[in-house]
Amino acid sequence: MPEKKFQKSLTLKKVISEIFKQKIPVILATVALLFLFFLTGLFSLVSATLFGFIFIALILAMQNPENLYSLSADEKDNLSAVSLELKNMSFLKIMNEGIDSIPDSIFIIGENEIIIHANKSADQNFRTSDNIQSMVGFRLSSVIRSTHLFESIKDLRSSKTSVKMEIILPGEVEKSFDVYLSRIMSPSDDELNILILLRETTDLKKAMDLRSEFIANASHELKTPITVIKGIAETLDKYGLEDERNSKNFISKLLKESERAQLLIEDLLSLNQLEMRQHLLPGETINLVNVIDSVFDILSDLANKQKITLEKSIKKKKYLITADEKDISRAIINIVENAIKYNKKNGKVDLILDDNDDSLSFTVKDTGLGISQEHIPRLTERFYRVDIPNSIDLGGTGLGLAIVKNIAIRHNATLDIKSKIGEGSSFSLIFKK
Ligand code: ATP
Ligand code: MG
């Protein structure tokens, strides 16, 4: 320990040398005075020596022991150098702990791209094997494979500006990073080191990709009805409304396509509103039986048109939940509408409400074509539609189940989907009690 080197030991030799160093003028003056007294015959040799000893003893007794510990200028310099060193050491320790607590991965590399420091996050994200204790001493290229990164490091060694770049690292799961590179000089040997900070952006990139995909899909879906509407309007403008049969045909197409565009815009708006309200907990107590009854009334016309039998199976008169009534009604309409739309001719749709000790479930069972397993996890993605060969276009936007999923999340409920090709599907909303 450096402090030990500077602990002063108090030896007899030291005491005497310190006293003599500090009191030498006084002692010399005393000896000279006694010698003068002896020469003039005022003191005998014996009394002069005796007097001298008493005087020196008095000086010893008056000596302030603290003075014995006072340091020379050199020792003072050494001590302040050590205390600075100690301060630097604890500062470095704090810095290291701080760098370790940063979620970004940080590497410092020296010559030949050898790793001389890697923080905790770098270790967790990039250490490829549990058999090695630390990446220090390894080449950076053995843990990060990116030619783009190494070219930038090479450029940075010859230029003085810092670099910001993006890299994508392949792997089981592709990861993307924002990378910041800067030069740092090692204070001990004037070596040029490079600091590399990697900030993971995989989730952010995924969210941004989803957003652009969503905008592309929404514009594409809107483009279709609008193109048709524009085409019909241009034809009518050119040829007029004289041919009554054709005109009626065109107008009913106009209505259908404008309804499709309107539905899409309504769905987009309701998805957006749901996302904005996602953090607000629903506060009303509602009776699910009443909501199901009203959905039943709203959709019985559609069911009759498609020759589908709608049935309810509800044992009790009251099933209370804390919810937003409008949202729950919207979710149930979307599920029941699908069960009618994607059913077989003369099919059946059952609305079943049941509860047990800790949950309450609402299930819509249909006798439709069923959905193959690979599509089921993707049904709640926005704009996801199962392509049914040779089937007529039912005009959906592919947003219905995405809305249901959002509503379920806001109500801390789960959407459970089961289906068998040729037998039908069941969609359940399960609420916690
Ligand atoms: P929207 O509901 O927005 O008008 P949509 O019905 O096509 O359009 P979703 O409700 O999200 O969109 O449904 C997504 C897809 O899931 C549908 O296109 C359909 O292929 C399939 N699907 C949904 N419900 C059923 C069901 N009961 N039986 C068979 N397929 C279904
Ligand atoms: Mg739908």
List the helices and strands and how they pair.
Layout: H1 2-5, H2 12-39, H3 45-62, H4 73-101, E1 105-109, E2 115-118, H5 120-126, H6 147-158, E3 163-169, E4 175-185, E5 192-200, H7 202-239, H8 244-277, E6 284-287, H9 288-305, E7 309-314, E8 320-323, H10 325-341, E9 348-355, E10 359-366, H11 400-410, E11 414-420, E12 424-432
Parallel strand pairs: 7-9
Antiparallel strand pairs: 1-2, 1-5, 3-4, 4-5, 6-8, 9-10, 10-12, 11-12
Helix pairs in contact: 2-3, 7-8, 8-11, 9-10, 10-11
Bound molecules: adenosine-5'-triphosphate and magnesium ion.
Quick rundown:
This protein has 433 residues and is α+β, with helices and mostly antiparallel strands.
In words, what does this structure look like?
- This protein has 433 residues and is α+β, with helices and mostly antiparallel strands.
- It has four domains: 2-79, no CATH class; 102-200, Beta-Lactamase (2-Layer Sandwich); 205-276, Orthogonal Bundle (Helix Hairpins); 285-432, Heat Shock Protein 90 (2-Layer Sandwich).
- It is 50% helix and 19% strand.
- The chain is built from eleven helices and twelve strands.
- The strands form three sheets. A five-stranded antiparallel sheet has the order 2-1-5-4-3, sandwiched between helices. Strands 7-9-10-12-11 form a five-stranded mixed sheet.
- A hairpin with a 6-residue loop joins strand 4 (175-185) and strand 5.
- Helix 10 runs antiparallel to helix 11 (400-410).
- The relative contact order is 0.06.
- Magnesium ion is lined by residues 334, 337-338, 396, 400.
